[in-house]
Amino acid sequence: MKKYSSTDKLLIKSNDILNILFNIKSSGRNYPAKDIHENEMSESDKKIVRNLMRVNHAGEVSAQGLYIGHAILSKTKEQKELMLNMASEEKDHLEWCGHRIKELKGQTSVFNPLWFTGSVAIGMLSSFTNDKNALGFIEETEKQVAAHLESHINKIPKQDNKTFAILKKMRSDEIHHGITAQKHGAKNIPSIIKKIMNITADVMKVASFRL
Ligand SMILES: [Fe+2]
Ligand SMILES: [Fe+2]
Prior knowledge:
- With 211 residues, the protein is mainly alpha-helical.
- It has one domain (42-210): Ferritin.
- It has seven helices and no strands.
- It has helices spanning 6-22, 43-72, 77-103, 112-127, 131-155, 161-183, 191-210.
- It is globular, with a radius of gyration of 18 Å.
- It starts with 5 loop residues before the first helix and ends with a helix.
- One fe (ii) ion binds next to helix 2, helix 3 and helix 6.
C-alpha cells in the first residue's frame, strides 16, 4: 500500500477542502412558492418583505458556511456525509430566498462574504474537538433559526402567500435538522455559548436588514 508523505496528505486535505467549499449542490427540491399567486402588495409592504428576505438569505449564506466548516473537520465519513446532506438542503433555502428577493426586485446583503467566511470559521471551531459537540452546536443553531423564522412568518404582510410558503417550508426543514442532530448524539452546549450565538445572530440580522 502506498504511503503518503506529509506534503501529500496536506495536498489531499486542501483539495478536499476546496471540493467541499465550491461543490455544494442544492438538493433540487421545487421552489415552495412556484404555483402560488402573487397578490397585490403596496410598495412599503414589498420593502418590508425584501428586507426580511435579505436577512433570511444572509442566514442561509451563514448556514452554508457553518455546514461546510463542520464538514471540513468532521471526524468520521458518516458525520461528513450528514453535514453535506444538510448543506444541500440549506442550499435549497439559499436559492429560494434569492429567488423571492429577485421576484420583489430587491438585493442580497453586501455583508454576505463576511457572514460566509466567519461561519466557516465558527463551523470548524465547533467541530474541532469532536462530532458530538458539533452536533450540539447544530441542534442549538437550528432551534434558534426555527424560532427566528417563526417571528418572520408573523411579520410578513398577510397577503404575501408566496413568502409565507417559503418560510413555512424552511422552518419545517430547520426543525428537522435540529432533530437529526439530536438523533445522532448531539451534546448539550453551555448556556453561555447559546447566548453568544444569539448575540452574533442579532448583529447579523440588524446589519443584513439594512444592507
Ligand atoms: Fe436553512
Ligand atoms: Fe437548517
